[in-house]
């Protein structure tokens, strides 16, 4: 094998970068998040405002003239862990030689940027596509979360990268009768749980930014989002998430919580059997332990059932998150369907 890794600095190399998934998955089986159109949007600052606070470099590995792998190295100026950089967009043929060359290239770029640890896979940062699937390959692949061939785990671990953290996905059944844990009362007055107003997305994005940045700062891998990031998130969900599945809680008109469930396919009220992924759920610190989280999940249950969504997944819960014992186990259950692993390497 005659390997050469090139940085993407022209259209020809970018085309090779975009073509790698077809080599790995085949033309018909490329995951939506790895599709050329998705990647083009990811690296377009007009469509991904996160690039305003992210610096990145894309690389392609060639065996002669044949592209055989790709990787992205990135740093985020908003990252509170200032020594941390990311690797992502990783796609590779089943070759430890190619994988090692790609990961070392990403590590070298991050060293030049004075970073001391490399974390990934995380495409651009930990707010986007995160984790390497290591368990649950037979499970449903839901929107907006990664998928990869089983051999990727060996490729990554053979280069010396070690576990940083695991993200877990749980089986979610939505029975006609609410679970007993959701029928409990709450200790709050002045509570309103409302659907997002997509028509006023600028104002709603400001609320989402505030909620996200105040709810999740102690979560593993947290990076704050900007107003632009939140706007892009909202606009990216308009065509796939009904407003009733994107819930905002207010207590005496103050933003208090957020809940986002993403249908696997466009739901229809007159049909049952649909699937859904619970992507985000959280409550402001001052409103915790008062029943608001259960109240929001109860409303989510009701709206999902109305849309014929009866089963699904609670996705990518950090293994260190205490919500597992307080919310997921008693209400959702304990059946883990997938595990995604994030790896690290000291630089």
UniProtKB/TrEMBL annotation:
Coiled coil (UniProt feature): none
Where does the N-acetyltransferase domain start and stop, copy by copy? 191-347
SUPFAM superfamilies per the UniProt record, alphabetical? Acyl-CoA N-acyltransferases (Nat)
- PROSITE patterns in the record: GNAT
**Protein origin, superkingdom:** Bacteria
Q: Could you state a single Gene Ontology molecular function term? A: acyltransferase activity, transferring groups other than amino-acyl groups
Return the InterPro entries for the record: Acyl_CoA_acyltransferase, BcerS-like, GNAT_dom
PANTHER family per the record? PROTEIN YGHO
This protein is called N-acetyltransferase domain-containing protein
Name the species this protein comes from: Desulfoscipio gibsoniae DSM 7213
């Amino acid at each position: 094998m005659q390997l050469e890794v090139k940085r993407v600095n022209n259209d020809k190399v970018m085309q090779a970068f975009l073509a790698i998934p077809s080599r790995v998955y085949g033309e018909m089986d490329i995951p939506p998040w790895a599709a050329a159109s998705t990647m083009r949007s990811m690296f377009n600052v007009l469509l991904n405002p996160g690039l305003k606070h992210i610096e990145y470099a894309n690389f392609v590995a060639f065996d002669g003239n044949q592209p055989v792998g790709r990787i992205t190295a990135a740093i985020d100026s908003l990252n509170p862990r200032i020594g941390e950089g990311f690797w992502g967009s990783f796609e590779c043929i089943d070759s430890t030689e190619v994988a090692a060359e790609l990961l070392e290239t990403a590590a070298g770029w991050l060293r030049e940027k004075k970073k001391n640890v490399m974390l990934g896979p995380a495409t651009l940062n930990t707010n986007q596509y995160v984790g390497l699937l290591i368990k649950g390959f037979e499970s449903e692949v839901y929107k907006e979360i990664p998928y990869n061939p089983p051999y990727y785990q060996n490729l990554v671990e053979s280069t010396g990268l070690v576990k940083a953290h695991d993200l877990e996905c749980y089986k979610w059944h939505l029975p006609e009768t609410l679970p007993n844990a959701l029928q409990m009362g709450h200790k709050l007055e002045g509570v309103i749980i409302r659907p997002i107003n997509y028509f006023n997305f600028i104002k709603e994005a400001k609320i989402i930014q505030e909620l996200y940045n105040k709810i999740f700062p102690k979560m593993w891998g947290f990076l704050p989002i900007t107003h632009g990031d939140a706007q892009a998130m909202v606009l990216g969900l308009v065509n796939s998430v009904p407003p009733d599945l994107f819930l905002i809680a207010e207590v005496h008109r103050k933003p208090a919580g957020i809940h986002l469930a993403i249908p696997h396919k466009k739901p229809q009220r007159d049909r049952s059997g649909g699937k859904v992924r619970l992507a985000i759920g959280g409550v402001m610190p001052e409103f915790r332990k008062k029943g608001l989280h259960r109240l929001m999940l109860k409303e989510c249950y009701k709206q999902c059932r109305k849309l014929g969504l009866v089963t699904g997944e609670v996705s990518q819960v950090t293994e260190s998150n205490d919500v597992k014992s307080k919310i997921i186990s008693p209400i959702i259950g304990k059946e883990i369907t997938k595990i995604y692993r994030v790896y690290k390497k000291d630089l």
